[in-house]
Design goal:
Elements (H helix, E strand, L loop, with lengths): L7 E5 L6 H12 L2 H4 L4 E5 L5 H8 L4 E5 L16 H7 L3 E4 L2 H6 L4 H13 L3 E6 L3 H5 L3 H12 L6 E4 L13 H15 L4 E5 L4 H8 L6 E4 L6 H12 L4
Helix pairs in contact: 1-3, 8-9, 10-11
Bound molecules: 2-phosphoglycolic acid (PGA).
The site of 2-phosphoglycolic acid has 13 residues, from β8.
Length: 245
């Protein structure tokens, strides 16, 4: 079985890079062979202040731009916050919601993630809902239950883009095994239906991207650290491109 569509590769730059480096990296990505021959679909998620600059670089190419977060309100007295329509206005087409760093460090609970997910849709953005279990939940045999509960708390039954990112694999160098990832991906797909696009995230590197994506249950990848340098990210795109349908 091969993938139904070209793999989706999302670069989550988090709070890294400066504007000039972000533009240079976007230029290198646009010029990469895997993007040129349309064997991958790519989304870049820069920090808010660089969205517009990165969007200008990728305009008219296979590469799109995503926000890393949004506020659920449209406008108002929310100092420091950014709304979905503001993101859309920069050229973003997608937005991450519920990343584990937002959940753990900024207190985004399921209710907040749900509101953000709905707000993204209202603004015409495609939300990428991030879910994933802690090490304690995995060790307790609860990984699948935790992940499906996180999905149901936010978007029950809605075909959507889900990024499965086990918390213990993010930024730790400890990638889930293909079997661990495939099991959760299959459970998510059974739960949401064939329309769901399920990405894997957590310590994806040029060395493991190809084998992760060779698993038919894994429709794409969400890459943090290895998306910050052209060398590693272009190698990931090249590996992903070989998995195109
Ligand atoms: P990582 O981050 O690739 O550095 O593990 C992934 C993510 O947090 O989206």
């Amino acid at each position: 079985m091969t993938h139904r569509t070209a793999p989706l590769v999302v670069a989550n730059w988090k709070m890294n890079l400066d504007g000039r480096v972000a533009e240079d990296l976007a230029r290198a990505i646009v010029a990469s062979p895997a993007v040129g021959d349309r064997s991958v679909e790519v989304l870049l998620a820069p920090p808010f202040p660089y969205l517009e600059r990165v969007a200008a670089v990728v305009r008219g190419t296979q590469v799109g731009v995503a926000g890393q977060d949004l506020h659920w309100e449209e406008a108002g007295p929310f100092t420091g916050a950014v709304s979905g329509s503001m993101l859309a206005d920069t050229g973003a087409t997608h937005v991450l919601v519920g990343h584990s760093e937002r959940r753990e460090r900024f207190g985004d609970d399921d209710e907040a993630v749900k509101r953000k997910h709905q707000a993204a849709r209202r603004a015409g953005l495609d939300p990428i809902l991030c879910v994933g279990e802690s090490l304690a939940s995995r060790d307790a045999g609860q990984a699948t239950n935790v992940v499906l509960a996180q999905i149901d708390a936010v978007a029950p039954g809605t075909p959507t883009i889900i990024a499965y990112e086990p918390i213990w694999a993010i930024g730790t160098g400890r990638v889930a095994t293909i079997t661990q990832a495939a099991e959760i991906h299959a459970a998510i797909r059974r739960h949401l239906g064939a329309g769901a696009r399920v990405l894997y995230g957590g310590s994806v590197t040029p060395d493991n991207a190809g084998s992760l994506l060779s698993e038919p249950e894994i429709d794409g990848i969400l890459v943090g650290s290895a998306s910050l340098a052209a060398t590693s990210f272009l190698d990931i795109l090249a590996a992903a491109g070989t998995q195109a349908p």
